[in-house]
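Bit of a strange request maybe. I'm writing a small parser for structure token strings and I need a real example to test against, not something I typed by hand. Could someone generate the tokens for this chain?
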Amino acid sequence: QVQLVESGGGLVQAGGSLRLSCAASGRTFSSYVMGWFRQAPGKEREFVAAIRWDGTITHYNDAVKGRFTISRDNAKNTVYLQMNSLKPEDTAVYYCAVPRAVFGSTYRVLPREYDYWGQGTQVTVSS
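Reply from user aminoacidic:
Good idea to test on real output. This should exercise your parser:
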């Protein structure tokens, strides 16, 4: 059974940084794209970033490009999201997600294109 567990969220002032982690288990994830999404209160879940199975391609939402960096360590079955220059509008619950198919496109940005989800970690950015 696939399990994704996020950690690293918290409260930070605007301009600060956080690093989220997502530990995966239940399969070997070195053949899967992994993604990060977020959902703010009253809003739909939106794509944040994705990374190819070998880490050679990354894709970002324009709203976070240049501030967030996605990376992965396949030996640890873990994906990371380094978030710098945080803004109040980054406040949301952040989720990691994995599609069912191996070697999929890194450019999948819709939640329905991902099949497995973590429970989420809260990120709050104060102004």
